């Protein structure tokens, strides 16, 4: 794979890397189709590959010892997984599954670690992404504590919309129940509320956002902080990448 091909990737983190880092990983990146349900990492299992999505949405899922599952966070072209790889941890701390089909580039874990250890600029981008993801996790914790389910659903739909093209999101009620850590009937009720307000249209296994601005207003303080922090954390990296010599 050549540098120009990597440069055309839509993963935001890869676009922030200096050209030298692009060149260093270019020959080791594999393009993959990632269907819904594809497992990218499993808790307690050895990490073999690090994934950078260019389309689709992946879900970071935590399973309790009682067998209950809940989504801790999501990512798309804004990040990579498993984040454990950045610390040199060889096993994943959580499950990662594709919830919206897409594509991405895969780099062998060992190659990722070599680049982390030899390039400060590469490591800086990867570590900054971890901070941004930590903010998302904190935002989820706060939202789950103080906002009601309809606002939480609005937030998750906006987060998904941020990571795909178009206004139609392929999400099942089962996935939404995992996202919100509620039962499926509660998801159905909340979808009806948002649909009744004209904010979305709920189809079978698909949700269409009809009025994004109104949906943001409805979500209120549940949405926006993590997104603002992501932009802030990445802003100076964009400046640094833009001044790298050709």
TrEMBL record:
Domain named HTH crp-type: residues: 151-218
Organism from which the protein derives: Brucella pseudogrignonensis
Pfam families: HTH_Crp_2 (PF13545)
Protein name in the entry: Crp-like helix-turn-helix domain protein
Keyword annotations: DNA-binding, Transcription, Transcription regulation
BP term (GO), one: regulation of DNA-templated transcription
GO molecular function: DNA binding
Coiled-coil annotated residue ranges, if any: none
């Amino acid at each position: 794979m050549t540098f120009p091909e990597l440069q055309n990737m839509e993963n935001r983190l890869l676009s922030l890397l200096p050209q030298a880092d692009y060149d260093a990983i270019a020959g080791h990146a594999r393009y993959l189709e990632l269907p819904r349900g594809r497992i990218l990492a499993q808790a307690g299992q050895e990490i073999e590959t690090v994934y950078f999505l260019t389309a689709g949405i992946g879900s970071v899922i935590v399973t309790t010892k009682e067998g209950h599952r809940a989504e801790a966070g999501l990512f798309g072209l804004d990040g990579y997984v498993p984040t454990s790889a950045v610390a040199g941890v060889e096993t994943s701390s959580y499950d990662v599954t594709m919830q919206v089909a897409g594509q991405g580039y895969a780099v062998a874990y060992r190659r990722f670690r070599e680049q982390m250890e030899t390039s400060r600029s590469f490591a800086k981008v990867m570590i900054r992404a971890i901070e941004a993801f930590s903010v998302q996790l904190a935002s989820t914790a706060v939202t789950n504590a103080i906002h009601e389910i309809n606002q939480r659903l609005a937030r998750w739909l906006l987060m998904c919309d941020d990571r795909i093209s178009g206004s139609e999101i392929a999400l099942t009620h089962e996935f939404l129940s995992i996202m919100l850590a509620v039962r499926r009937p509660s998801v159905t009720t909340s979808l009806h509320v948002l649909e009744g307000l004209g904010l979305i249209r709920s189809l079978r296994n698909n949700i269409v956002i009809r009025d994004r601005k109104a949906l943001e207003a409805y979500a209120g303080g549940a949405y926006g902080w993590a997104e603002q922090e992501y932009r802030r954390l990445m802003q100076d990296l964009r400046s640094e990448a833009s001044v790298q010599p050709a």
